[in-house]
Fold this protein.
Amino acid sequence: MPSENAQHVTLDGNEAAALIAYALSEVIAIYPITPSSTMGEWADEWASQGKKNLWGDVPLVQEMQSEGGVAGAIHGALQAGSLASTFTASQGLLLMIPNMYKIAGELTPTVFHIAARTLATHALSIFGDHSDVMAARGTGWAMLCSANVQEIHDLALVSHMATLRSRIPFVHFFDGFRSSHEVSKIIALDKEIIRNAIDDRWVEEHRSRRLSPENPVLRGTAQNPDVFFQSREACNLYYDACADFVQNSMDTLANLTGRKYQIFEYSGAKDAERIIIVMGSATDTVKETMEVLNGQGEKLGLLQVRLFRPFSVKHFISALPESVKAIAVLDRCKEPGSVGEPLYQDIVNALYEARQNEKYVGKNSHSDVEVNVIGGRYGLSSKEFSPAMAKAVFDELKKDKPKNHFTIGILDDVTHSSLSYDESFITEDPKGVRALFYGLGADGTVSANKSSIKIIGEDTENYAQGYFVYDSKKSGAMTVSHLRFGPNPIRSSYLLQNAHFIACHQSQFLQSFDMLTMLLPGGTFLINCSLPIGEVWKSLPQKVQIQLHSKNAKLFTIDAYAVARECGMGGRINTVMQTCFFAISGVLPSDQALTLIKQSIKKTYGKKGDLIVKQNWEAVDKTLAHLHQVEIPALDDNSGYFEKERINKFGIVDHVIQEIIAGRGDCLPVSVFPVDGTYPTGTAKLEKRNIGFEIPVWDEKICIQCGKCVF
Amino acid sequence: MPSENAQHVTLDGNEAAALIAYALSEVIAIYPITPSSTMGEWADEWASQGKKNLWGDVPLVQEMQSEGGVAGAIHGALQAGSLASTFTASQGLLLMIPNMYKIAGELTPTVFHIAARTLATHALSIFGDHSDVMAARGTGWAMLCSANVQEIHDLALVSHMATLRSRIPFVHFFDGFRSSHEVSKIIALDKEIIRNAIDDRWVEEHRSRRLSPENPVLRGTAQNPDVFFQSREACNLYYDACADFVQNSMDTLANLTGRKYQIFEYSGAKDAERIIIVMGSATDTVKETMEVLNGQGEKLGLLQVRLFRPFSVKHFISALPESVKAIAVLDRCKEPGSVGEPLYQDIVNALYEARQNEKYVGKNSHSDVEVNVIGGRYGLSSKEFSPAMAKAVFDELKKDKPKNHFTIGILDDVTHSSLSYDESFITEDPKGVRALFYGLGADGTVSANKSSIKIIGEDTENYAQGYFVYDSKKSGAMTVSHLRFGPNPIRSSYLLQNAHFIACHQSQFLQSFDMLTMLLPGGTFLINCSLPIGEVWKSLPQKVQIQLHSKNAKLFTIDAYAVARECGMGGRINTVMQTCFFAISGVLPSDQALTLIKQSIKKTYGKKGDLIVKQNWEAVDKTLAHLHQVEIPALDDNSGYFEKERINKFGIVDHVIQEIIAGRGDCLPVSVFPVDGTYPTGTAKLEKRNIGFEIPVWDEKICIQCGKCVF
């Protein structure tokens, strides 16, 4: 029976996974790596606070010298009969591969939770795709993929259940950043549910296999050609049984929570002819797109792959509707030189084997006819995957000769792999409210927005989602916060396509970045600006003025730094800007909002002492006095106060870098990039960010020649 | 034009690869690992001797702290514009994977020569299969596979040519032990050929891309979601072009040597309906089998895969005959949980894409009809793959419902994956001579046999092949030497199926191992035995006596240890046993043989001084006086001098271990093995090897209580 007291929490994907791993582990070895870091950090923090696991013990959380050491420590802990887990990504996962082959070969239950991240090739990337987990697909581990924060929480538990039952170790993975860092309102699995999901007999069986002096056995022998092969085949039954164990665990979870999952989950038209097969966060985007298009009379389908390994052809085929004629398989990785990417190859093979088997048994069904399958790459290194792109893939399947090995989301003007797409195709929920915030890394914008999401998600009936686009320079670079609120559950796993509210926390960004294209007609634009109110309009670039005009927008301004200074908070403007958002966006009644902000401040800063709380409360109160609506006058030809034309004085590659700096990197085609990741040096000069608010002046009298001021 | 002075050399696969890598490298970083060790060791030795590469320089050979360090050192050397190579296998290759992604992403030419070895899973294995190279197939490296010693030598050069031309780094791999340690007579690539094969302009282009302060560039940037994906696709043209570069390099080699290679090489009937697709040493076994069966009227084919990555569907399809109806793809690895093993998946995909393309362009050819494809695993951890097994695979393809995902070479009585095969199917060359030697690790048997192969291979017109089965205990365990000689090139990449000559260098092995089943009727059996001649026959186990009788064999005996002692050589019996072999096997006229042995001794031991040479020469001369033919009397019921019945006092797993010790591990089915590699302890007691010739006696007077004598 579903638990009756379903508790809503607002958290990100990493915390959702770490909560389960922590509850079900005795040993957690960590070596945090982006974007999985906070899973390890949470576990470390909880252990230092004495938080207990399901059995009332505090897990041993140990940071090692590298991910290689983590894998060895986990391998050892498992052999000693402990329940052990870890978290990693990217190169970190690569260092675990040697131990992973052994852990699987010895049929040892464990779960590694992976915030899947790009592997470094021509360039390093801290962002998300599936190239890391795909590099580990030969290790003999089960691989279960979650698409969103709720799934991460639920399937983390399924992974721990299924590994204990099947003895196959599990990689539980989800999209780095897009899912690991998306803050979302979900239903928590409480201790009672976890308790009912885990049968202690499974744990006892694992314990009974431990290496122990009381019952000595030998593991890790060296075998010769005479017996290795036979021994290697001795595990087959365990792999054959694994998919059913995962489905059974999902079914148990459904009984406990009401949330149903399938290892291959089909949704869409029952008589769909065109289907997309995909795993990870893109699933939700495809689903949203498909529902809109099916509403317009199309017959489309989506097959979400959750259990990628062991790949069960039987379950896959039974999930696929017989009507299917054309399939596009989307892979979030690239393996140059292969016939095709991994999921695509699996699907072609699975369909082949289904036809082969049915031919042998004399049946005559859908799989007797060869389905047309194409494969494509998308979303490498967290490249956006939007409904417009999903639609382009569905549309491609209509063609007589759809393009195989396509790319979607870029312009490939070299090998012409890319599909074009119509950016104006938008599927945002009409009942939702969307807000976009441009801040400076470490200026508090992201923290303020996370607080706002928690307020709306936990203190109202609304659902809330936050996704934060960081530059890999982290502190000091631009951050863009994408917030969605609304009465319906939010499964839009892509950046905002338009917004009711846009805030610019750093006015200098307006010179370089186009912020207002996304503003909906009649929407609100808030700018943090130190100029007197009368000069704000004139300071705006002409393009911004035109956009505000044509959209019939409302313009607000605040000198947030002045408020922060007045309240003794230095440059920390997060509370001020958060208050402005609630004051003018109208997502909550103003009084209620102010009360909730103050509660949130108390909760967040309480530990730091009353002064900090008081300063922030004061800032809340003073903000409204400093917040002004700016009348939008007739257009002025002399505008463009700060605007300067940037002239490209450099070569083609410098042009590329300038476009990247200007936030237009997404629009650059393949042809402008070096084939091997080689760039000119000395290009830092192209990036003048103007983010300093004070100009340091050298004071000869107090100089100790430390050199840090760079004079 | 082919070089006119083709020079025959007799060497093993590792030396064949190392010779080319050394000639074409400036930096060689090493961390030797079985079975690739000798490649690194040769390079180290040559460098210390001042041997020069193609350009007259002595390469820098540097041993690192691990294979991870090797990959980093190579990456660095390449970025500095050097020509750099290394050698590795198994876990060593796994540690290189992170750097390999980067080396490929930066389009950097290099060749890693891999003696492919099993990855440790339920047990460690030092032996050969493709699980290591398959674990690296996602890195974006080209992967070229050689099937025998001549190919290793030739395709090593092709790899170095093609990497420089294509900028794609190459894994050049071949079967660990079966190819890396097979000693074979091949035609060497002399300096002139290598010189003509390598265009210095390719080297200059590589140099021009180096990191250098004179022409600074930036490589190894950090990229964000905006541009990473486009940049990743910028390398596509290089991968598209790679297969043609490899084929062109093979064609250039053919012009220089007359030896022709195809990246996908078809052989067999032009109208074959049943085809095996395979790579590595098994290719030659399949080919030999196919030729015998086609000679009996079958219509079979073989498609050898040499270039596994980039996988060129175009070249693959054009190599495949249109008549094909059924294909078996053999993979020398196992990936539990996958739909199928890697090569099988590629073939299914390639055939699918060929049909897809032809459907679109409206053609109607062989690939318009779906070919029946099955995949199977063979040869894990150097498990023998014989002509009988190859025949079983061809036979399976005749069936209406051939078994997919089969295993061949074992008995799988659990999941019933295995095909049965008829061991009596033998394809040995009737013109060849085969000899089998049972020795003790480190007793000189293998060295003596390598010397014999060199004598026959280099001093006569005959071809020669030697393969040595070691136990992973190495020194002190049994070694079995499999030697083939004959007028035809020898491509039998499997153990001897029968022998004209069998020698037992350690008589105690006769009690445990069946040596004589393989002896051909009328063949010769030589035993090294310290008993007086009159007692030799009586000392033989009854089973051996019956075998010698029924085969009408000739029996010779020598007390080799007595001869060695007389000549002051202690326990080193290799020269004595080698002399016996030439004296009684008749492969060469006796006088010629003795002269060649003495020359070989001079060459081998010359550096160690005249005394050693003289002692060995004396041993050669004295051997014949101690070598006696033993008349085979009527069978005697009282025989079995040493024979004792071994009673199984232990449980089932002990039985397994006893069978392994008795050399019958190959016959054990899957069901007797633990599923996770767990064994009881204390089983060393089951192995009583009786290999000591002297019994130590404790002398109280001189004892210093060091404890090493174990009293």
Confidence is low (pLDDT under 50) at residues 363-368, 639-650 of chain A. Chain A has 23 helices and 27 strands.
